[in-house]
Write a structure and sequence with these properties.
Layout: H1 12-19, H2 23-31, E1 38-40, E2 48-50, H3 53-62
Antiparallel strand pairs: 1-2
């Protein structure tokens, strides 16, 4: 899977698809603080997470992932 341009944030679904994991797994690692993400949305509304490609790559390196995406 090719990564989007560096200025385009990734979604939790993008990250889950790349890793072959569930979106729930990605939400869990965000809540645990292992993956940096910015919440997008207004208070009281269902929010989304924006993840920079650099933060996603750093997370993959932290967990020992071997198939790293190219960033930039």
């Amino acid at each position: 899977m090719a990564m989007p341009p560096p200025d385009a944030p990734l979604t939790t679904a993008d990250c889950a698809l790349y890793m072959g994991r569930s979106v729930d797994y990605v939400h869990k690692v965000i809540r645990l603080g292992h993956l940096r993400a910015t919440r997008i949305g207004l208070p009281g509304e269902r929010g989304r997470w924006a993840i920079t490609p650099e933060d996603f790559r750093a997370f993959l390196e932290m967990v020992g992932w071997h198939r790293l995406p190219k960033v930039g």
